[in-house]
Amino acid sequence: DPAPSPTPAPPAPTDPETPPQPATIPGVPPSLPVAQGPGGGGRGRGGQRTYAQLIAESKVDDGVFKVHRVADNIYFEIPKTLLGRDFLWVTQIKRTTLGAGFGGQSVGERLVRWDLSNNRVFLKVVNYDMVADASTPIAQAVTDANYPTIVRAFPVVVSSPDGNPVIDVTSLFLSEVTEFSPRQNLGARGMDQSRSYLDKVVSFPENVNVEVTQTYTAGALGDPTAAPGRGRGMRGSSGTIVLFHSIVLLPEKPMTPRLFDARVGYFSTSLYDFGRDENKAVERDFITRYRLEKSDPDAALSEPVKPIVYYVDPATPTKYVPWIKKAIEDWRPAFEAAGFKNAIVAREAPSKTEDPDWDPEDVRYSVIRWLPSTTENASGPHVHDPRSGEILEADIQLYHNVQNLASMWYFAQVGALDPRAKTLPLPDDLVGRLIEFVVAHELGHTLGLQHNMKASSLYSLEQVRDKTWVKENGHVPTLMDYARFNYVAQPEDGIAVEDLVPKLGPYDKWAIMWGYKPIPGAKSADEEKKTLDVWAREQESKPYLRFTTSNSFGTDPGEQTEAVGDADPTRATALGLRNLRRVSDMLVTATSKPGEPYDDLTDVYARVVGQWRIELGHVVNVIGGIDSKELYGGQPGLRFAPITRVKQSAALQFLLENGFKTPTYLARTDLLRRIEPSGIVSRIRTAQNSLMNALLQNARLDRMIEQTALDPRTYTPLQMLGDLREGIWKDLAAPAAPIDLYRRNVQRVYLDTIDNRLNGSIVPSDEIRALLRGELRVVDQQVATALPAVTDAVTRRHLQDVRETIAASLDPRAMRTRIAGLAGTGRGGPGIAPTGRASAAALATAEPYDYDHDPFLAAPESCWTDFAVR
């Protein structure tokens, strides 16, 4: 999802095969020579051009710089007053070659200055990671340790009558400059100047925009097989793009920053301040936010001096434009809580007739971009002033197929609760509402807000099912969680269909208030701290305002992705599985169309199986889980406390009954034999393998071991492993009954997972090794006892194989070759071989398996990752 504002691309590697670039551009006249005397109306010494001649020969565009264009050469006339001032140089791809990203993709941001020295202008990259007040003794040392890097040096061609230097910047845009290069975005090897040219240069009062067409040759990262819209690297031997540079003047006096507080979820920018009177360099984190100032500072509710404006991309499907505009203005009540009326405004992008110079890449405009991509995702990066955290602009990126993802999720999660979702495709008004939700979530990121995964656990299940509560507060207190649709609700709850989708909640209003509300009388960030602390402590009386606890993700079952009602994940999942059973009954009728293939049925079925798996994963994390809350000094209570023994034990029993038993409603012949000749056995085993790997994570077991040492009353790992063994192998209590294929696979998954812990590439702790080896010995004894009474031939062979597998796992001399993977790998877990069995060797690649951070499930930059099991 993501997401934080983009970081500059690292320097592109020097390619030894790329020839040196010529000093002049082929077909472009040489630069005007350097004037020998002051600027004026006559010729300089030696017959050189003067400023007056430059004016006569060029087309001039006046703005923050005067831009002079002479044929294909571009000259910047930089006012003396702006020499040494801070500019933010933002580079984006405006148009791209097939396979290499999308229009609007960020290349990077650099803070730069233009400095004049000895008749040359130097373009320098400035870094604010280290600072110190100029009055402190260490200030000069900090300056010496953080000297700006010179990117380019330009001779002064001529000076204006006012003494403003004029420089030829043509080569800056027509050669590859590492700091502004899109090479890594494209997967390219080098740039070809002979196939590159300047398109357009426009100067505005606060910024200069430059469009340049550049052609790059393909490199090792290129992917000639990439599908359109997938963004895997440029296709073919070369590719041409349009690069857009927006060079914006930053305020001479930065916005007063607001200090970051881990109790409130904002993105931040950081620096080390060596000038503070403390015995170490202090890291200072400032939240990212727009600059909002009241027109009437004395009014409780005032119009802003300058509202936050978002434009809707003209490429957006017409039927969704009203929904996207509504998503933008959905945030107005949050800003009213901060004291601003009409703080955020939605506008449609002007036509070329209305404004020929309007560009979505222009750093002055925040735009909701609609991208022609088959990727099912969206993201919300923003650009900010690194000195203060002031957000300058944002570009929300909506990939075309996110509408399909949202539709499939809605059907799988709440299709049984909404009559409009009984058949696919969903109606336009419902899809529009889902697009509104996606945009509103991403817009929250561009306002500065991080994901708040704790929010989904801050309402009780009773509140999540209460139609009055949900109408007023939503089923989750924020748009910024990874909670999607209210799959906990049941048909008898009577929740209105419009309330099944998350909406702006109390946390959103409170967080925007905390970050944006002016604090009268405070003249610095430090003077705001006392008030900000008082506001943050409102969480003590209103727990639903809490934010994700730092350093807790993956340990707190109340901070899970894709969860609803994880205040009690076990009960919430039980309710969610009821809805999945209802949806499974709808699959064939909802997707089948006369004369059409079963593609929709195949797709939706995979997503329903994925939903089943992910909801069970929420229950796994109760075991060994920790309840957390972010607290600062002076607040009562502890930050971390183990989940109670009763809840952990109940979670394990739930998994044994619902995760490690066959979900028969997903294994129906009338459904499966419409979409595939085989595959359900492998599919279920893949999902159960994911659950078993998650349950027996080294980190989870070590955490339980430590919890037991601190408090023996908690759910001990020995008790958990004993309960797990008893549930997985309970078939041995009735050895005369055959063990079916699904149960045999669950038992194999159990053995393979333990084998991988004992003999995989990551060595477990001594305590884990002793516990797991002990479990295998007990199972071996139980199988040996049961075997004489086994009459079913397949079951007998299975149990004999079990004993041999255990012997191999316990044999320290065993030398098993561990391969990197298996054919038939499914999403979300280790692969299944064509025979349907995943070997211990293959499962070695999954250690330690982290269900919450599966690369197929939770890409860090992704807000809308799919969970389908293929």
Q: Radius of gyration over alpha carbons?
A: 31 Å
The amount of helix comes to 25-40%
Category by helix and strand content: alpha+beta
Assembly annotation: single chain
Mean pLDDT: 86
Strand line-up in the sheet with most strands: 1-2-3-9-8-6-5-4-12-11-10
Report on the biggest sheet. Answer: 11 strands, antiparallel
Q: Which characteristics define this entry?
A:
23 helices, alpha+beta, six-stranded mixed beta sheet, 22 strands, 870 residues, eleven-stranded antiparallel beta sheet, single chain
Characterise this structure.
It is a single chain. This protein is an alpha+beta fold and 870 residues long. Helices cover 31% and strands 17% of the residues. It contains 23 helices and 22 strands. α17 (680-695) runs parallel beside α20. The model is unreliable at 2-47, 221-231 and 815-861 (pLDDT under 50).
Short structural description:
With 870 residues, the protein is α+β, with helices and mostly antiparallel strands.
Secondary structure blueprint with pairings:
Layout lengths: L50 H7 L1 E3 L4 E5 L2 E5 L9 E9 L9 E13 L2 E6 L4 E2 L7 H7 L3 E11 L5 E4 L1 H5 L8 H4 L1 E16 L3 E12 L19 E12 L18 E6 L8 E6 L20 E5 L8 H9 L2 H6 L6 E5 L17 E6 L6 E2 L2 E3 L6 E9 L2 H13 L13 H19 L14 H4 L2 H7 L32 H11 L8 H12 L32 H23 L7 H22 L5 E3 L11 E3 L2 H14 L10 H4 L7 H16 L2 H13 L6 H12 L12 H19 L6 H21 L6 H18 L29 H4 L27
Helix pairs in contact: 5-8, 7-8, 7-13, 7-14, 13-14, 14-17, 15-19, 17-20, 19-21, 20-21, 20-22, 21-22
